[in-house]
Amino acid sequence: MEQPAWRELPAAQGSFTLLQLTDTHLRPDPELLFGRIDTWALTLAALKEAERFRPDAVVVTGDLADCCSEIYDDAARLLDHAAAKLGCPVITLPGNHDVPAREAGLFNRGRAANGPGPGETVHFLGGLRIITLDSDDPGRPAGILSAEQLDWLRDELATPAPQGTVLALHHPPVESTLPLLAGRGLASPQLLRSVIAGTDVRGILCGHYHHAQSGWLGSVPVWVGPAVACNPPAPGSADTSDSSWISVIRLGPDSFRAAPVLVSAGMPAATASNSSAQAFGLPPGVVGVPEGAPELSELKLINPDLDKIAAGQDAAVEKFNSLLD
Ligand SMILES: [Fe+2]
């Protein structure tokens, strides 16, 4: 499929809305993650939810696949369709479960420049620049940015963008608040901190932790998005369900705001059906979901009235938007 043309934003536009999806952990259909989580159904629901916010771009911050599963052709069809449906680019970068070389030829075809590896790309939304980085260090729990990657980033940032820059990488340059995840963020974050100090970088988007978290790298805000697939309940919680989330990021002329948005409060053992794919406007069979499987509406979506959402008639969304604007 040809890369769809997306909305051209004027360079002087000072406000942007980014929708972040992270850690979708797609498995070859009809396999379920952990035998019970339908990652395709959740990703479809997440993209449907993204429509509500009329984003200027969707950023997928890694672990598009689960365990290097060969899902990339189907995922590219889905994300191409989402870009056309949403009227904005869908930007991806690799996580520790991904195969960067497989992603390179399928995604980010609207990029303005490449970096030293397939995970390093540069994009412009009008005057806003988004730079992706591949932070995976295969076989090791922590992420890493090489001297080559950091040198390239330093060179890119030497020329400021009219509306500033957002960085996106999988491994957060801040430690998780969960002791369980200690040592699983970006190793040596001070190296990245020194590269971005004094530049136009106004925010950093990450994933990987499968829980929401904010932080700072020097004077730059960091947002760790909760996962589309599998956010385990807190230890000791009576809730035994995994939840599914996206994040909305609002960039004003001098502000960076991020909030998690619940897509599904729980994931029963269900599989997507062709009709659930069609709820997002996908042609039948685009993700190869089986006929006769349970409906997407069986998921505990916050607002299951997809038609109403698509028509922009959701009063709750309007209220939420007014709080953020
Ligand atoms: Fe993940």
UniProtKB/TrEMBL annotation:
GO terms for molecular function: hydrolase activity; metal ion binding. Residues 17-211 form the Calcineurin-like phosphoesterase domain. Keywords: Hydrolase, Iron, Metal-binding. It comes from the Bacteria. The keyword Membrane does not apply. Belongs to the cyclic nucleotide phosphodiesterase class-III family. This is 3',5'-cyclic AMP phosphodiesterase CpdA. It comes from Crystallibacter crystallopoietes.
